[in-house]
Description:
- InterPro entries: C2_domain_sf, Prot-tyrosine_phosphatase-like, Tensin_C2-dom, Tensin_phosphatase, Tensin_PTEN_phosphatase.
- Residues 175-291 form the C2 tensin-type domain.
- One of its GO terms (molecular function) is protein tyrosine phosphatase activity.
- Residues 2-170 form the Phosphatase tensin-type domain.
- By secondary structure, the chain is an alpha+beta fold.
- It has two domains: 12-168, Protein tyrosine phosphatase superfamily (Protein-Tyrosine Phosphatase, Chain A), CATH 3.90.190; 179-353, Immunoglobulin-like (Sandwich), CATH 2.60.40.
- It contains seven helices and 16 strands.
- The strands form four sheets. Strands 1-2-5-3-4 form a five-stranded mixed β-sheet, sandwiched between helices.
- The protein is globular and about 70 Å long.
- The N and C termini lie far apart (46 Å).
Amino acid sequence: MDRVMERHYDFDLTYITERIISVFFPTKLEEQSYHLNLKEVAAMLKSKHQEKFLLLNLSERRHDITRLNPKVHDFGWPDLHAPPLDKICAICKAIEMWLTSDLQHVVVLHCKVRVQRATRVFSIWTPHRLADQVLSTLAMRKFCEDKVSSSLQPSQKRYIYYIGGLLSGVIKMNSSPLFLQQVLIPSLPNFQNKGYYPFLKIYQSMQLVYTSGIYIFWEQLMTTYQQRRKGVKCYNRQAQTTDRDAVFRLQFHTCTVHGSQLWFGKEELDEACTDERFPSDATVEFVFSSGPEKIKGREYQKNDPAVTVDFNTTDPVVHWDSYENFNQRYQDSLEGKILIVFFKTHLSFILGNY
């Protein structure tokens, strides 16, 4: 695994294997510097591989990448998140088709957010290979140790496990519909020093499908929701400011769910896993059913009568959707060009504090 002129440029170009290359640009790199360095990367790649490289852009769309190399596939997703399973499959298919069509073909994984994206793609793609599998696995292990260490979010690790489990048969795919009935969130007293006003957002394929009211005074929070959705984010609306912070974020895929309940502990929740305020023994529970109706004979928990809910979801802090138009915009867009792409697979949950 070679690094190319790493100290002389504002990028890291690494040959993970002879035919898979990672190019990482720092997140805060200024636009002018990024564009100049991108030209250097293109020149290096063309001098060694001519026109036989395919660039997979794992970050936000950019016009300048396409202008420098027309063979670009855009597979970006929000930072610190796991990509949807259908996007993972599309990436693996693109790599496989390009590499098998010509022995001189190489793939370039472009990241302008975090190098972990390239690691996730490579670690997911490796099981697809029938030839050179041992070499690829050793290269992947070395690349992961050098570049990522323990910085992956729980949801990112979960999706790598999904792919490995589905390919090996350890995870059996559930094709039956699942309806989310309730989300049970534990008491979080350490968040309440400066006021704790949580609300929940539920996403499907980065599209916001539900926003709860703001909960005021609660021991344990029960949110009732009756739709086929699969992702959550919990926020806390800050009391004396027009801001919010994430309490936890969670992504999972319902095709891996067997049964009517799921529990996620602190170590399985994005954001919360490193937050000292989140109790180590606390869990978030999800209750499902096979249809929109509640399961007959099942006892559903209810909130304490003392809990009040503010349903003013038009408040800008609550209403703001951080993923809105992600698949439509270009990071360097000056022309207002829009390309609409919607993906229909995984579910994201975010709990926040208002």
